[in-house]
């Protein structure tokens, strides 16, 4: 990861990127396999100071899991956050404002759909199932960014990254209700990018290749999806959470200062293959 700097009249040189002095919020760690965990690991290696949140979990494991990841990275701010709850969002950003005053980045690595909507025929998607998927997986990036804006302003700008999937533009078997949700997420970052660009606040999504995680295991026949993605990508293999995380760190860094409103594919070229 590289950062540009001037070097004694010899033109522009590049040096290792650093997140030292940068502060950010990471949403979406559920366990060690989460994409958000890999993103946090890379950002931690690059020196970022972070706060983590954990989503609602009827079995109560997420808080414990996130605390464990936080401990490994010396992260002291671990907060509950249900992105479907406006008060939760306000509380989290209120705490960050008190603690830090400013914010440099937000990682939105959150999605949810009722299991039944990921297994049955798409035409059977219920109104409620549609609304839940849209609310948690797409709309939530809007209020999360809204609350981040004043804090990012205080730091002279910022960067927001969300996680998408190719099901936003292609009809992927069983992805169903999540497809339109990801399409909305990608569209939302374009509108956020347009609005916030003048304030040096950027918003992008990463369209990640299929990876086995807690969420993806809820998609019907996910094993098959994973196999197809590996076999039909240009690289001939599946992507890793680490590869997604490296791109997230790049997009969150000043190296990506002119990249906004984009959907960046980190899928081994799966999206460019005719078959
Ligand atoms: N795994 C894949 O194949 C893949 C591919 C492309 C994109 N993605 C996206 O990456 C992101 C992270 O997913 P993952 O695969 O790491 O799975 P994951 O299950 O580890 O992460 C999903 C996270 O969403 C959180 N969440 C769900 N409902 C929430 C709510 N109401 N409030 C707050 N948080 C909530 C969960 O707590 C969990 O931490 C998601 O947006 C997912 O759609 C995943």
Structural commentary:
- There is one protein chain.
- The protein has helices spanning 35-45, 61-72, 86-100, 127-139, 141-154, 178-196, 222-231, 241-252; strands at 2-6, 12-16, 23-27, 49-54, 77-80, 105-108, 158-164, 201-208, 263-266.
- It is α/β, with parallel strands linked by helices.
- The protein has one domain: NAD(P)-binding Rossmann-like Domain (Rossmann fold), CATH 3.40.50.720.
- The strands form two sheets. A seven-stranded parallel sheet has the order 5-4-3-6-7-8-9, sandwiched between helices. A two-stranded antiparallel ribbon has the order 1-2.
- Helix 1 (35-45) packs across helix 8 and helix 5 runs parallel beside helix 6 (178-196).
- The longest helix is centred in the last third of the chain and has 19 residues, at 178-196.
- The radius of gyration is 18 Å and the shape is globular.
- The protein starts with a strand and ends in a 9-residue tail after the last strand.
- Residues 28-30, 34-36, 55-56, 62, 81-84, 109-112, 136, 163-165, 208, 210-211, 213-216 line the site of nicotinamide-adenine-dinucleotide.
